Amino acid sequence: MADSTTDPGARAGRRRRAAADADAPAGPSAPDGAGGGVAVLGGGPALPLAALLRAEGVGVLEAEPAPKQVSPALAARFHYGVSSVRAGTLGDLRQVRQFVGQALSSTIPARAFWPQPDGTVVDGLRAGIEPYGLAGLAAARAYRLAHLEATAALLRRAAVVVIPLHTAAGLAAADGTVFPPAPAGVTVPGALKLRAQRWTRADLDADFAALHADLNAARPGVAIRLIVAPLPGAAADEAGVALLREAAAVWARQFAGVAHDPVLDQLAARLIALPAGHPGAGRLGAAVARLACGADILDLLPPASGEAAAAPAEAPAKAARGRKAGRRGRRAGREGAAAARVVCEDELLEAFS
Amino acid sequence: MPVRLCVIGNSHIAALKLGWPAAGIAGIAPTFFGAPADGLRHVVLENGVLVPRKSDIAGHFRTISGGSDRIVLAGHDAFLLVGLNVSSKRILRFYKTHAWVGLNGTAGKTVVHPGFAMEFMTERYGATRMAELAATIAGATDRPVLAVAEPHWASWARTAPAGTADYGWQDAAASGDGPAIGGLFVQAVAAALAPCAQFVPQPEETVEDGIMTRADYNKDASRLIGGEGGGTDASHMNAAYGAVLWPRVEAALRARLH
Question: How confident is the model over A202-217, as a mean pLDDT?
């Protein structure tokens, strides 16, 4: 397992972002889950959360890191660096729950491996992460077990687990195993009889309770941050996202260590909806990354007119104490001013609209 | 008229030069151009001529070739690139942290798809001085370009005393992964060079455990090549190695020319 804070690519990313995005929201860097690092379970091209966090200097853990010298193109071809785990986009709570459960128990569902017409075998639980299959069933099984073992080690280490969710539906086999949609060119065994299923609120509640228990068993006291945002375009599951957001707000109150921020949801959704190459993507990505790691929303906003200008550079410890005191003061002010917070959130969203 | 073969390499051309007389090959006239370590990085192409930018490299060229301090590409019928950073040490470094499915020595390592290992190593060998020089020559002439890698290190390096460079031979050999690693090395180097050069692998009879060279082919190499007392250099091979390698080069060359 590696910590990408030492990755030259991550450092270069930070330099690039700093150079290209000098007008990013002011504020301290997001915390990196002191004492354990941050794990991101899922994400993909629409919401490259792990990359956004790395660009902000957050130490994103990777269960199965690529060699440091790999080219970005080859890493992308084999889905390295997209998430902390090489498990595909995930995004469905049932799928995340099952994946974490399988990792912690080293179990492999029946029919996980799909024979292909060319004689290779594809791991159906993460069929999209590699351009071709393996030579046989034994190799596929050994590879999956190594993947589960590396994931379990990651979950035991991560102090913060960030889980992006985008749907409340999945493709389930008769035994209840949920599979991601098969990518083009991969043959799904007919006997699998995958059925599209939509999860009820009760399903989601049960899945989250099980996931919370599993993650806390792996790392007691782990902080879990949920981000709910729809995939772009036709893939969007708006109804599922609405249901998940409603449920996530409740889970954040009910379960220890769980956080869900509706503003973060909105910013993530806005980022997902931005056209490629949009000049605001850097700023928005930085804001998403900072909030995803628990930064205070006010730290992302520029000072209002009349507010004291930023203090000159101080010694790090003194500066940290000052920031902490400032945050305490702002927090105290917010407690009696819920309406003001709404205004701040509205301003933030407006700034990125 | 013999085939005028231009042999360009680093210190590993010594084995080929020493082994040439014993190989007894007729119809090929080799001319050797060498520079130690990574000295070939100071050679540039100017109007069809490979010209050293540093006087010491030009001096090496003169000494080894018998008088020429530059390489006129049109003056040769074929090219043989030797060593030039293409070594199994590179794949062994990868094996210290990663292993592909199917290998035995996966404990404590990141396990990768065999296809990824192949593509990654192809990428890495494509970034060597040899690949760069092969592309330079292939872009300037239509003559065949062949390539041989640096030999695997001598088998005694596996159990060398503390302080000797350890690239992980013992781990690879003890786990039984040597042949698979050696096999991927050959495939990846061949693929990396394929656009510009044909790779001629190390003769099987010289290989031990897939990733080492039999000790006999290293005997006295350090004395003959570096003038050292012997027993300290596991990376260079002797005349016997060169003599075994030449017929492979000849066969590949004949196939390309006819």
Answer: 98
Phi, psi dihedral angles at A321 (to 5 degrees): -60, -40
CB contact under 8 A, A78 and B106: no
What is the domain partition of chain B in residue ranges? 3-86+125-154+190-257
CB-CB neighbours of A352 under 10 Å: 17
Torsional sign, CA A58, A60, A61, A62:
negative
pLDDT digits (tens, 9 = 90+) for B42-72: 999 999 999 999 999 999 999 999 999 999 9
- Check residue A25 and give its pLDDT: 36
Q: For residue A200, with 0-12 CB atoms within 10 Å meaning exposed, 13-18 middle and 19 or more buried, which class applies?
A: exposed
pLDDT band per the 50, 70, 90 thresholds, residue A86: very high
Task: Report the top-level CATH class of B3-86+125-154+190-257.
Answer: alpha beta
Share of chain A above pLDDT 70, in %: 76
Contacts of B124 in chain A (CB under 8 A): 69
Q: Which residues make beta-bridge pairs with A163?
A: A226
SS3 letters across A199-227: CCHHHHHHHHHHHHHHHHHHCCCCEEEEE
Best residue in A64, A118, A123, A144 to probe B by mutation, most B CBs within 10 Å?
A: A64
B136–chain A Cβ distance below 8 A for any pair: no
B101 lies within 8 A of chain A by CB: yes
Do B153 and B167 touch, CB atoms closer than 8 A? yes
One-letter-per-residue 3-state SS of A65-121: CCCCCCCHHHHHHCCCCCCCCCCCCCCEHHHHHHHHHHHHHCCCCCCCEEECCCCCE
Q: How confident is the model at residue B258 (pLDDT cuts 50, 70, 90)?
A: confident
Tokens of A33: 């889950």
- CA dist B233 and B168 (Å) reads 17
Q: Is residue B160 classed as helix, strand or coil in its secondary structure?
A: coil
Distance from CA of B88 to the nearest CA of A (A): 16
What pLDDT shows up at residue A305? 75
A143 with B111: Cβ contact below 8 A: yes
- Asked if B81 contacts B133 with a C-beta cutoff of 8 angstroms, the reply is yes
